User: Fold Glycerol-3-phosphate dehydrogenase [NAD(P)+] from Cellulomonas edaphi.
Amino acid sequence: MTADRDVPLAQPHALRAAVLGAGSWGTTFAAVMADAGCEVTIWGRDEKVCRTITEEHRNERYVPGVDLPAGITATTDARAAVRGADLVVIAIPSQSARATLETLRDVIEPDAVAVSLMKGVELGTDRRMSQVVAESLGIGPERIAVVSGPNLAKEIAHRQPTATVVASTSEETAQLVAKACASSYFRPYTNPDVVGVELCGAVKNVIALAVGISQGRGLGYNTMATVITRGLVEITRLGLALGADAETFPGLAGMGDLMATCASPDSRNHTLGNHIGRGMTLEEAIAATGGTAEGVKSSRSVLELADSLGVEMPITHAVVRVLHEGLPVDDLAALLLARPHKAEGV
Ligand SMILES: NC(=O)c1ccc[n+]([C@@H]2O[C@H](COP(=O)([O-])OP(=O)(O)OC[C@H]3O[C@@H](n4cnc5c(N)ncnc54)[C@H](O)[C@@H]3O)[C@@H](O)[C@H]2O)c1
Ligand SMILES: O=P(O)(O)OC[C@H](O)CO
Assistant:
């Protein structure tokens, strides 16, 4: 039995955390950890963003209208942020993780834990983010945790209640990270199934693109429910082929995050899909959406991974064809529905 496990609410801890990424999730998760009692330093690339986080306790560019906990500081010096940190939390776009982390390999503390908040699969290698973290920082899986769940940054920045999953092959590491982010509005559950939790986070973005495209095209709730439900089936199929635990998929990181991302107009993946459905080109849709819509690039790496394992992922395939191979949006539904008859199930 390895489904999401309940974690008691933590007492404040004085753990030191470095958060890499001053974007919407990095800044919000920094606030979550500060509220849980951690000492938090954010690394960001933009001098002005870092200065306003430290001096004005605001990040108007990424989390507008939110007062951040006063103790959070930010720096453009990633090495200084990581030095001495108990937790190194990574919240940058998946495709830039390897290059960024390789420069920090020699400064991460020998017993520090790396925490991936990223929801993507690396292009070119088809690696999950915990694998990229292990390779680029040179640390073992027992020092790595993944946080994933129905976690739209905008809602959490306003301290709206939600739950999440902290996955690690080490229960001790999972508990440490869970305690470092547990608060009255943020409820972590632990799960040893790193593969399943990571895949859910990455592939739900692709499914949200498909839902957005359908909605942008004017299709209704039956279509949405079909794409979400069959999307979960294809996420599960890929996960099982990679050795994930079947119980992860109906949990918070699976169905929970799929629902949040496919339903919310605040989701970048959903929004970008919607723009495509309304007729924008990919370049126009990326510009109009802003922020990191991981599914655009990860759709290709996920499909490659699936193909290498002989796993069928028709929705992911359709998204790749529309975004990257010029398939007209109007042909998407036909591509999905005109497939040969099969029985329902994984
Ligand atoms: N925003 C959310 O609601 C949310 C929730 C859960 C998980 N995530 C995941 O967190 C990760 C980060 O997303 P986000 O929402 O914070 O993105 P964002 O676009 O809001 O911010 C991205 C941050 O990364 C930095 N960055 C961009 N390119 C970079 C590069 N080449 N090298 C180093 N840094 C770079 C940017 O300057 C910015 O600080 C993604 O994998 C996303 O899927 C986001
Ligand atoms: O805005 P999105 O589409 O990247 O989704 C954000 C989170 O992953 C939702 O859990």
Summary: The two ends are 20 Å apart (CA to CA).
